[in-house]
Design a protein that fits this description.
There is one protein chain. The protein is an alpha+beta fold. 32% of the residues lie in helices and 32% in strands. The protein has two domains: 19-115, Orthogonal Bundle (Arc Repressor Mutant, subunit A), CATH 1.10.10; 135-272, RNA polymerase II/Efflux pump adaptor protein, barrel-sandwich hybrid domain (OB fold (Dihydrolipoamide Acetyltransferase, E2P), Beta Barrel), CATH 2.40.50. It contains eight helices and 14 strands. The strands form four sheets. Strands 7-6-5-8-14 form a five-stranded antiparallel beta sheet. It has a five-stranded antiparallel beta sheet with strand order 9-13-10-11-12. A two-stranded antiparallel sheet has the order 1-2. α1 packs across α2 (45-52). The two termini are 49 Å apart.
Length: 274
């Protein structure tokens, strides 16, 4: 008998789920909305439940929950007739199912683009960096593509933020095309906190890193080995960086001190507004 299949060499990929809440209560995600769509297609709770592999009672329990949480009926049942009546979505239920499908499709594309963009999850180091996304995901900037410089393999994309600051990113030509990155298009940038270098007193210095955002330190959160430094940018917004405790002390980083956040164009992940 063959043993359990080894997963040692299988690729690790990003995944995500989307769901709706009302006042903190769970209205539903793909499963419940899928049940709504099945009801719309079959006109029958029985057939919809069978399609999802659940009992008739479980289907009605889910429907009752959605009706109660949403504050208005999403599903209604008409009685009588030779066929024994039918079940259908209310106009509100139909609208909710259609809107969720659109948003869920956009969410799937976003997660897939993050997975495809730049992270090689096959190595331990990149896996650890991914697990640190809770911190680095805080560095999110939205803006408008202001310039695109094409290259043989990679393109240079300039993103202008609402406050006027500019971020430069390097992406593949394929990414430029699939994300429809062109002047005037909305986009957002993600920068991991571990990719941000904090510097002080750099007036007159010439650096190879394209992105240099000056500001004022608003918070320093000490850790056992590393400190998290948050800089309020002169152009608006803030950016978080993670650096060693000794580096933070050497730079004299404290609330109110001036500092510049520096990161390479290759450290920026771009996403499109869809």
């Amino acid at each position: 008998m063959a043993g359990p299949r080894s997963k040692k060499n299988e690729a690790i990929e990003l995944a995500g789920a989307l769901w709706m809440t009302v006042g903190g209560e769970n209205l539903g995600g793909r499963g419940r909305v899928g049940l709504l769509r099945a009801i719309a297609e079959t006109g029958s709770i029985t057939h919809a439940a069978k399609a999802f592999g659940i009992s008739y009672k479980a289907a009605w329990d889910a429907i009752d929950t959605m009706n109660n949480v949403s504050g208005q009926a999403l599903v209604e049942r008409s009685a009588g007739g030779r066929g024994g009546g039918s079940t259908k979505l209310t106009p509100r239920g139909q609208q909710l199912a259609e809107r969720f499908a659109q948003i869920d499709a956009a969410h799937r594309r976003f997660v897939q683009r993050l997975s495809d963009e730049a992270i090689d999850l096959a190595t331990d180091l990149d896996l650890l960096r991914l697990l640190n996304m809770k911190t680095s995901a805080r560095n999110q900037f939205s803006g408008t593509v202001s310039a695109v410089k094409t290259g043989a393999v990679n393109d240079e994309i300039e993103l202008t933020l609402a406050g006027g600051a500019r971020i430069v990113a390097i992406v593949t030509r394929e990414s430029t095309e699939s994300l429809a990155l062109k002047p005037g298009a909305g986009a957002f940038a993600l920068i991991k906190a571990s990719s941000v270098i904090v510097a002080t007193d750099i007036d007159g210095a010439r650096l190879s890193a394209r992105n240099q955002l000056p500001g004022t330190v608003s918070r320093v959160t000490p850790g056992a080995v590393n400190d998290e430094v948050v800089i309020e940018l002169d152009a608006g917004g803030s950016i978080a960086a993670v650096l060693t405790r000794s580096s933070a002390q050497t730079l004299g980083l404290a609330q109110g001190s001036r500092a510049t956040a520096i990161f390479k164009a290759s450290s920026v992940i771009l996403g499109a507004m869809v």
